[in-house]
Structure formats: structure tokens, C-alpha cells
From TrEMBL:
Free-text comment on the cofactor: Binds 2 magnesium or manganese ions per subunit.
SUPFAM superfamilies tied to this protein: Glutathione synthetase ATP-binding domain-like, PreATP-grasp domain
Organism the protein comes from: Nocardioides soli
GO MF terms held by the record: ATP binding; D-alanine-D-alanine ligase activity; metal ion binding
Lineage of the organism: Bacteria, Bacillati, Actinomycetota, Actinomycetes, Propionibacteriales
Residues annotated to bind Mg(2+) 2: E275, N277
Cofactor(s) needed by this chain: Mn(2+); Mg(2+)
Reaction catalysis annotation: 2 D-alanine + ATP = D-alanyl-D-alanine + ADP + phosphate + H(+)
Name of the featured protein: D-alanine--D-alanine ligase
Coiled-coil intervals, chain numbering: none
Assigned keywords, A-Z: ATP-binding, Cell shape, Cell wall biogenesis/degradation, Cytoplasm, Ligase, Magnesium, Manganese, Metal-binding, Nucleotide-binding, Peptidoglycan synthesis
One Gene Ontology cellular component: cytosol
């Protein structure tokens, strides 16, 4: 008998389109001989829709989910990746793919992630937490990166390299979140490491991936084809080990499950953690599947491992 898997995409946030692409790719790649895929979509307005995109509401979605064996949430960003869908599954007693409520909430909050990282000895960029009430008092003294605390896909991220750029960058970030992180610019190579908790409980780190861009790795660079992804990244043994150890430590400290992408800057002093994504992009050409493909694990095999390792 095939396993019924509900694949949830979309979402009521600025990463809606990215989530739709990830969910469609996951649904298409799950082996039809093993899995019966049931697609569900959350609209920009929060409306749940069935495979025919007919509105069915939360109660209708709950009825569909109760008839499935496993839930595979692929909703990036707030009201999805932040633990919201994991909480729904937990309350309904539904097995689901990926990190639990606590890990999703902690990793989605970049300020909380920095605090956890500091507690386990992982370096992060010096930064300040800013709100709408305190933004007016912030003074520019050196180049900084401004980003929403809880948004993904590099949405709302801006570089303030000069004093006159700080205010517009803060306004753009505050338009997406009521808390903003202002961090020192870190000089280093941008390196991602994917970590997977396999169905048997073992942790595996895929070969690292380097992102090469002409400037800030923002939304346009990420999805507009302006970035060069190099996997495996060219690293010496010392740097490769330091990155893998830091990625595994961050994954464990945040209590992640399933797959997570841990993003670093590799500096002269070693890895500096940028962020942790508990629901990373999951099209076949996204960073995480590329990294595991470099390790010999195909995209359908990665998805199969995730479904078999679902919370039960």
C-alpha cells in the first residue's frame, strides 16, 4: 500500500511563490510507486485550497490531513517555517517532515539564533536588535546589513554602506517585520552546509556549497540567476572540518529535525554563522538538493529519507 503524503505549499507571507515552487517540485519527485501525493495550498490570504485549488478552509484541510499518513510542509517563512505548521500537526497527532515547533521558532528568529549560537561557542556578526520605536535613535557609524528578524529568502535585506542608506534599509525591513537585525558587514566567503537527520537517527552533513555573487546575496541574486553556486566548495581540510562541526553543533543546539541549511561566512578567523533555515528551498535545483546530490544522494532519495524520518 502506498503512503499518502500531504505536501503543503504557498503560505501567508512574502515567500509564497518560492514555497509554491518547492512544494510543486517535491510533489512531482516523490516516487508514485511508493507515495500517493495529496497537494494542499495555503493562499496569500490564508485560505486553504485542495489539489484543484478549490477553497476548503482549515476545517476542510484538517479532514484531508486526517486521511494522510505523513504531512510534508514546504511553507517557507512566517506561519509555516516558524513552527506554525509543525504545531498544527502536533496538535492533530499527524506525523510530519522537518523540525518541530521549538526548532522552527528559534531558527526563524535570527536574534534568538544568535543567542543560541553564542551559548555553544559559534561566532556570529556583532549586531543590534531594532524596533520601530528604537529605529529613530540608531546612528550609522560603519557599513551594516539590515534584515528582518523573521523573514526568509533574503526578503527585506539591505546594505547600508553610507549614512543616507540606513533609514531606507530600516524602513524596508520594518515593512516585513516589527523587529529588525542590524549587523556588522562580515568579510568572507559565503558557504552553506546542509545537515540531515536520517530516518535511523544519524546526522549527515552534505558537501559544502559556496555562493559567489558580485554583491549582496539578496532576493534578486538568489532567485534571479545572478549567483554562482559551487558545490562542493573548494575548501582545505581545516576549514571544511570547522564548517561541518559548526553546522552540526548549530543543528543540534536548535533541536532541528529533517533537513536544515546552515549558512556561514568563512572568514580568516573561521566560520561566522549567518542563519539557519529549517525549511530551505526544496526544488531539485535549490542549494540543499544540490549539496546532497554531490554526496551521491539523489533528489527523490533525499525526499524519501525525509518522509521516512518524519516525526511520529
Amino acid at each position: 500500500m502506498r503512503t499518502r503524503v500531504a505536501v503543503i505549499g504557498g503560505g501567508q507571507n512574502c515567500e509564497h511563490d518560492v514555497s509554491l515552487a518547492s512544494a510543486a517540485s517535491v510533489a512531482a519527485a516523490l516516487d508514485p510507486a511508493t507515495y500517493d501525493v495529496v497537494p494542499l495550498t495555503i493562499g496569500r490570504d490564508g485560505t486553504w485550497r485542495d489539489r484543484g485549488l478549490r477553497p476548503i478552509g482549515l476545517s476542510g484541510a484538517a479532514h484531508v490531513l486526517r486521511g494522510c499518513d505523513v504531512v510534508f510542509p514546504v511553507v517557507h517563512g512566517p506561519r509555516g517555517e516558524d513552527g506554525a505548521l509543525a504545531a498544527l500537526c502536533e496538535l492533530a497527532g499527524l506525523p510530519y517532515v522537518g523540525s518541530g515547533v521549538r526548532a522552527g521558532a528559534l531558527a526563524m528568529d535570527k536574534w534568538a539564533t544568535k543567542l543560541v549560537a553564542a551559548a555553544v561557542g559559534i561566532a556570529t556578526a556583532p549586531g543590534t536588535l531594532v524596533t520601530a520605536a528604537t529605529a529613530a535613535h540608531l546612528r550609522w557609524t560603519h557599513p551594516v546589513v539590515v534584515k528582518p528578524v523573521a523573514a526568509g529568502s533574503s526578503q527585506g535585506v539591505g546594505l547600508a554602506a553610507a549614512p543616507e542608506q540606513l533609514r531606507p534599509a530600516l524602513e524596508a525591513a520594518l515593512a516585513l517585520d516589527d523587529r529588525v537585525l542590524v549587523e556588522d558587514v562580515v568579510t568572507g566567503r559565503e558557504i552553506d552546509v546542509a545537515v540531515l537527520r536520517c530516518a535511523d537517527g544519524t546526522l549527515v552533513a552534505a558537501p559544502a556549497l559556496e555562493i559567489v555573487t558580485d554583491g549582496l546575496f539578496d532576493y534578486d541574486a538568489k532567485y534571479g540567476g545572478h549567483a554562482d553556486f559551487r558545490v562542493p566548495a573548494r575548501l582545505d581540510e581545516v576549514d571544511a572540518k570547522a564548517l561541518e562541526d559548526a553546522a552540526l553543533t548549530a543543528y543540534d543546539a536548535l533541536a532541528c529535525s529533517g533537513v536544515a541549511r546552515v549558512d556561514f561566512f568563512l572568514t580568516e578567523d573561521g566560520p561566522v554563522l549567518n542563519e539557519v533555515n529549517t525549511v530551505p528551498g526544496m526544488t531539485e535545483h535549490s542549494q540543499v538538493p544540490r549539496m546532497f546530490a554531490a554526496a551521491g544522494l539523489s533528489y527523490p532519495e533525499l525526499l524519501d529519507e525525509l518522509v521516512r524520518g518524519a516525526h511520529r
